[in-house]
Amino acid sequence: MNEPVLVLLTLNFAFIGILPRIFFRSDGSLNARWWATASPFFVACLFLVGAYFADWAALAPASWLRWLAVAAVPFSVASVALIWMTLGTHRIPISLWHQENDAPRSIVTYGAYRWIRHPFYASFIFALFAALLYHPHWVTGATFLYGVIALNLTAAREERRLAVSEFGAEYQEYMGRTGRFTPRLGAPVRVA
């Protein structure tokens, strides 16, 4: 296994793991739904470290692993960069997912949100995909698939709440021009 890439991925997951403590509002608790959504990140990171020390074989030919590790780097770097860009977008901490009191205080449509509605979640998906590329295995495949589904369900729940909030009309217009996790091709991007 490529140790520098493993360190990059481990740091990427550690960065994701400390976000609730360093950035998000702490006016709620880490409830069961939060843990269920966050679990693939912990599992993927622990599995990669365990695979390194226990020498668990990847489900790809050994000749591919070097190139897959290289291919994982841009996704992990993009994950970290998108997290930083998104952090730089916010002027105040935002609520942590799955909190009962996470009513929006405003709609953010600039910075990373100019192109996608959920840049944090997109960055988390990039990290899970990087782990899958780095060590293709049924565990990393399952964490990636579970993470995409869990984040998609979380995003949909947040979007439903925003659509009926006091910002509903503005948010629905915003949804029309931006993608959930990827930029919407061909949609006009409003300059803030």
UniProtKB/TrEMBL annotation:
One of its GO terms (cellular component) is membrane. It is a multi-pass membrane protein. One of its GO terms (molecular function) is protein C-terminal S-isoprenylcysteine carboxyl O-methyltransferase activity. Gene3D superfamilies: 1.20.120.1630. Keywords: Membrane, Transmembrane, Transmembrane helix. The keyword Metal-binding does not apply. The chain crosses the membrane at residues 6-24, 36-58, 64-87, 115-132, 138-156. It is found in: Membrane. This is Isoprenylcysteine carboxylmethyltransferase family protein. Pfam families: ICMT. It comes from Catellatospora bangladeshensis.
